[in-house]
Amino acid sequence: MKTNMRWIKLMKNDIVDGEDVCVSLWVSGCNIRCPHCHNKSTWDFDQGAFFDQDLLIEIDQAISKNGIQRNFSVLGGEPLCKQNRHDVAIIVKHVREKFPTIKIFCWTGHVYENLVAENDDDLNVIFNNIDILIDGPYIDSQRDITLKLRGSTNQRILYNNGKGEFHE
Question: For residue range 95-111, what is the model confidence (pLDDT) as tens digits?
Answer without folding.
Answer: 999 999 999 999 999 99
